[in-house]
């Protein structure tokens, strides 16, 4: 591959991502300045949350959910993929268990390994196995399965997908060997590739940047001084946000591959980021018409903060980030936005612990509503499935910091 720098890769990212998408150049692109290492003032979630609702996920012998990897919500159904090889769990919008599909096995509609799943606007579930796609209706009833082999060699193995229709399927490819590249491609159900985008070789955990942020929208960001966030909207890629990360505007030497094994794992990139005290986006990127939410991490300074950006006013607010929840009514990891509600989750043991320790302070809802929510959680046990948290944020246009 030769010498490939973060800066060259970032330029390729922008040029190739926009090359086939001229229609979105006139769209509004939010330019936002963020930074977490210099005297930032922390905010409180209570100032931003308008309402909370909890959805305990029913626990059954066939429906035991472990750590959540991905959530999608469509047509009064909740779909959850866990870390590991447990399949896709389907629940009603009230949390009642329906079915677990795409479990391991050799029989029809079983998988060798579940890489990812997506749901089309028509409500069809598309699950991706190794070289095979399986489809189901919204309740998990099998429709068809077929082998899926893209017609262009050298892109690498498909690890993630987003489906809009039969001619707009986005695949995230990870290639092995020299250079270790990642691509995003647009293809169809026959495996015919329509576009190839975003090649770069320095970021081997790139699948983390291909993340669910809403109905048919995914976000992609490379680590750089400027992060450009794209989203798949109505089956096409659009540039949505440009983040100017103030922490990173320094004269540092670019990261350069020294041999064929460089960037095969994330270790060298992490070392480069840490030594140069760079801040990078960490984990999910979630947004709606009012707010953009993501975590900004600077491992060199040991700082990890959550950023909430008011898209109406441009104001940036920062919050402490904790691995364990500090209050029953404050969100932890936010998985996605659906119908303008942010979706977070709590493990069963966390709910029990917070209730036992009486960490239930909440000023933004009435005492009556709060008691209703607490009563709903009284039946949750430590070994139960996670409890989803629906968060309604205040209207950004009316809110002044």
Compact overview of the structure:
With 401 residues, the chain is mainly beta. The chain is built from four helices and 25 strands.
What are the salient characteristics of this protein?
mainly beta; single chain; Neuraminidase; 401 residues; disordered N terminus
Query: What structural class do the secondary elements suggest?
Result: mainly beta
Oligomer: single chain
| Low-pLDDT regions | 1-26, 200-218
- Total beta-strand segments: 25
Give the total of domains. 1
Order of helices and strands: HEEEEEEEEEEEEEEEEEEHEEEEEEHHE
- What is the mean predicted local confidence, pLDDT? 80
Write the topology of this structure.
Blueprint: H1 6-19, E1 30-34, E2 49-56, E3 68-74, E4 77-82, E5 88-92, E6 97-101, E7 116-119, E8 125-129, E9 132-136, E10 142-147, E11 157-165, E12 168-174, E13 182-187, E14 193-200, E15 211-214, E16 217-220, E17 226-233, E18 236-245, H2 267-275, E19 280-287, E20 291-298, E21 303-310, E22 316-320, E23 334-338, E24 341-346, H3 348-356, H4 367-377, E25 387-393
Parallel strand pairs: 1-18
Antiparallel strand pairs: 2-25, 3-4, 4-5, 5-6, 7-8, 8-9, 9-10, 11-12, 12-13, 13-14, 15-16, 16-17, 17-18, 19-20, 20-21, 21-22, 23-24, 24-25
Tell me about this structure:
Strand 23 and strand 24 form a beta hairpin. The model is unreliable at about 1-25 and about 200-220 (pLDDT under 50). The chain has one domain (about 5-395): Neuraminidase, CATH 2.120.10. The protein is built from 4 helices and 25 strands. By secondary structure, it is mostly beta strands.
């Amino acid at each position: 591959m030769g010498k490939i720098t973060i800066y060259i890769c970032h330029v390729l990212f922008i040029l190739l991502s926009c090359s086939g998408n001229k229609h979105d150049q006139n769209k509004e692109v939010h330019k936002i300045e963020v930074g977490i290492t210099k005297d930032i003032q922390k905010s409180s979630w209570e100032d931003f949350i308008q309402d909370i609702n909890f959805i305990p996920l029913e626990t059954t012998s066939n429906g035991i959910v472990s750590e959540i990897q991905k959530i999608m919500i469509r047509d009064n159904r909740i779909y959850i993929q866990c870390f590991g090889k447990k399949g896709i769990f389907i629940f009603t919008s009230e949390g009642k268990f329906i079915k677990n599909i795409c479990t391991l096995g050799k029989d029809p509609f079983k998988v060798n390994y579940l890489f990812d799943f997506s749901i089309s606007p028509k409500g069809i579930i598309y699950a991706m196995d190794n070289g095979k796609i399986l489809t189901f209706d919204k309740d998990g009833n099998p429709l068809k399965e077929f082998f899926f082999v893209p017609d262009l060699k050298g892109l690498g193995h498909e690890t993630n997908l987003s489906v809009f229709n039969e001619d707009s399927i986005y695949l995230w490819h990870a290639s092995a060997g020299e250079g270790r590249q990642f691509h995003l491609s647009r293809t169809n159900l026959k495996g015919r590739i329509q576009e190839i985008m975003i090649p770069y070789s320095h970021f081997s955990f790139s699948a983390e940047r291909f993340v669910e942020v809403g109905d048919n929208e995914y976000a992609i960001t490379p680590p750089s001084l400027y992060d450009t966030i794209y989203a798949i909207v109505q089956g096409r890629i659009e540039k949505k946000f440009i983040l100017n990360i103030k922490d990173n505007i320094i004269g540092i030497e670019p990261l350069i591959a020294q041999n064929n094994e460089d960037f095969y794992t994330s270790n060298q990139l992490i070392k480069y980021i840490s030594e140069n005290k760079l801040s990078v986006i960490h984990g999910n990127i979630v947004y709606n018409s009012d707010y953009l939410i993501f975590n900004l991490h600077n491992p060199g300074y040991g700082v990890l903060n959550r950023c909430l950006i008011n898209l109406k006013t441009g104001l940036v607010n920062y919050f402490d980030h904790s691995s364990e929840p500090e209050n029953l009514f404050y969100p932890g990891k936010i998985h996605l936005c659906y119908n303008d509600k942010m979706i977070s989750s709590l493990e069963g043991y966390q709910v029990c612990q917070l209730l036992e320790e009486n960490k239930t302070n909440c000023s933004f809802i009435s005492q009556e509503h709060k008691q209703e929510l607490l009563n709903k959680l009284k039946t949750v046990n430590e070994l139960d499935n996670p409890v989803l948290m629906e968060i309604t944020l205040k209207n950004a246009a009316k809110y002044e910091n």
